[in-house]
Design a protein that fits this description.
Blueprint (H helix, E strand, L loop, with lengths): L1 E5 L2 H5 L2 H7 L5 E5 L11 E5 L2 E5 L7 H4 L5 E2 L4 H4 L20 H7 L3 H10 L12 H10 L6 E6 L8 H8 L1 H15 L3 E6 L4 H10 L7 E6 L9 H8 L23 E5 H13 L1 H5 L9 E8 L5 E6 L4 H8 L9 E6 L6 E2 L10 H6 L8 E6 L4 H15 L5 H18 L7 H15 L3 H5 L1 H10 L7
Parallel strand pairs: 1-2, 6-7, 6-9, 7-8, 10-14
Antiparallel strand pairs: 1-3, 3-4, 4-5, 10-11, 12-13, 12-14
Helix pairs in contact: 5-9, 5-12, 6-7, 6-9, 8-9, 8-10, 9-12, 16-17, 16-20, 17-18, 18-20
Length: about 475
């Protein structure tokens, strides 16, 4: 008898290791990647004539009698059945280091410019937050005369409520590395770096094993030291070079002068992990999915006050409402929806009236939001918006690299104003001052950390202003 149990950090935190150890020696336990349906973990799967079936929320105590019960077909679990998975097609199915590198073989059978043309034709936009066209970035690096050239994967997944990078790093790391190697062939780079946050020890272990499997492309892993600012591409480059992680002035952009002032392609984990399917399925396939300006699928990460927390991969264009209620199952019993934040701690706060917003880079911009890395955190009616705003400004003040005054000073002053409000010491001018500070940070900061930090505070004031005027 063979059973499958996820070897993912989220599954392990729910007890997957204890469940795996509870099976007798007569049962072969295979550790796989995670399906991302965290509300079902620990999830134990078995093979049936009709495909995989599973038992949800297993405990060590239920293991002895578990296999006598009828399992639920995985294909019939609504949370998973309604998804459109490509980047995460193997999630929960394969063992983390099982990989064939077919897309890399195909890429190397093509000329570099043919690969570049395919990525451009696919209209792949970066999944890390900035949404810049990957093909344009790659072409810029390929055309840059300087050498050597480098490929850098930004695996410093620092946004609260995000974990899609971690799932790839732990569950199918070779998919990321294959995308990097394809980029290397396309732009003429012979070496790549994965900048990994130190808070991902399980991912580090998997990556160290995976880099040995990549054919003819050198990859080095660099550990970050927990600085959120190093998610910004130029601060990340400074950190790889052994310096303090602080943003650089732009231009020049990294595609022309990046790592050690050489042309460098920087993309996040999901962007690189999307590349193999574009090579094997074709650019037209990718461009056929999504909306007019946001092509392909996006892995959304549901967290907060929802019944079904987990990863949802769908084509661009579905609404926030569909994600929260059709996939997330709505809020737990007794809770009422108040707001949702998309895009991490720098993302705008959306009220209920914006839930019809399509998940698309440009549609989010129209309503003053960012899609970012696809993290979605739902808040219920018990959430204090002033306290939540103070929390985000405290985060920004702590994580600012300090290089520019608007971010360094503005975030600290905004935090102090919000603290005074919570202590009952606010003044009638505080809301206006928060707007003034926010405008200064948006217009004067060197990078997106300072430029976007006011968004959650200002949108909280916009939609829940009464709470700031008590």
């Amino acid at each position: 008898m063979k059973v499958y149990v996820a070897d993912d950090s989220a599954a392990i935190s729910a007890g997957a290791n204890r469940v795996a150890a509870a099976f007798s020696k007569d049962v072969e336990v295979v550790r796989t990647s995670s399906r991302g349906a965290f509300f079902l973990e620990p999830l134990v799967e078995v093979d049936t004539p009709h495909g995989r079936a599973g038992y949800a929320n297993v405990t060590p105590a239920t293991v002895p009698t578990l296999l006598k019960k009828k399992p639920t077909p995985i294909a019939k679990i609504p949370f998973l059945a309604k998804q459109t998975r490509f980047t995460f097609a193997n999630a929960g199915i394969t063992e983390p280091l099982a990989y064939d590198f077919d897309a890399l073989k195909k890429a190397r059978s093509l000329k570099p410019q043919q690969v570049l043309d395919e990525v451009k034709k696919a209209n792949l936009r970066g999944r890390g937050g900035a949404a810049f066209p990957a093909g344009v970035k790659w072409q810029t690096t390929a055309d840059a005369p300087a050498s050597p050239k480098y490929i850098v994967a930004n695996a410093d997944e620092g946004d609260a409520g995000t974990y899609s990078d971690r799932m790839i790093l732990e569950g199918e790391p070779c998919r990321l590395l294959e995308g990097m190697a394809i980029a290397g062939h396309a732009v003429g780079a012979r070496k790549g770096y994965v900048y990994l946050r130190s808070e991902y020890p399980a991912a580090l272990k998997k990556l160290r094993a995976a880099v040995k499997l990549v054919p003819d492309f050198e990859i080095e892993i660099v550990l970050g030291a927990g600085a959120y600012i190093c998610g910004e591409e130029t601060a990340l480059l400074e950190s790889i070079e052994g310096k303090r992680g602080m943003v650089r002035f732009k231009p020049p952009f990294p595609a022309v002068q990046g790592l050690w002032q050489k042309p460098t392609v920087i993309n996040n984990v999901v962007t690189f992990a999307t590349i193999p399917d574009i090579l094997t399925r074709g650019a037209d396939w990718h461009a056929s999915l999504g909306t007019a300006t946001s092509k392909g699928t996006i892995p959304l990460q549901l967290a907060g006050q929802v019944k079904n927390a987990g990863l949802v991969e769908v084509p661009f264009g579905v609404t926030l409402e569909e994600i929260i209620y059709d996939f997330g199952g709505g809020l737990p019993r007794g809770s009422r929806f108040k707001a949702v934040q998309v895009g991490g701690p720098l993302g705008s706060i959306f009220p209920e009236k914006l839930l019809k917003t399509p998940i698309c880079f440009d549609e989010f911009m129209k309503v003053g939001g960012i899609l970012g890395h696809g993290g979605i955190v739902v808040y219920d009616d018990q959430t204090d918006m002033v306290e939540l705003s103070r929390h985000f400004m405290e985060f920004t003040a702590a994580e600012s690299c300090g290089k520019c005054t608007p971010c360094r000073v503005g975030s600290t002053r905004a935090k102090e104003i919000l603290e005074a409000m919570l202590a009952g010491e606010g003044t009638v001018d505080d809301v206006a001052l928060l707007h003034e500070l926010g405008d200064t940070m948006k217009l004067g900061s060197l990078c997106a950390l300072g430029g976007l930090a006011p968004a959650p505070v200002l949108t909280a004031i916009q939609y829940f202003g009464k709470e700031f005027r008590k």
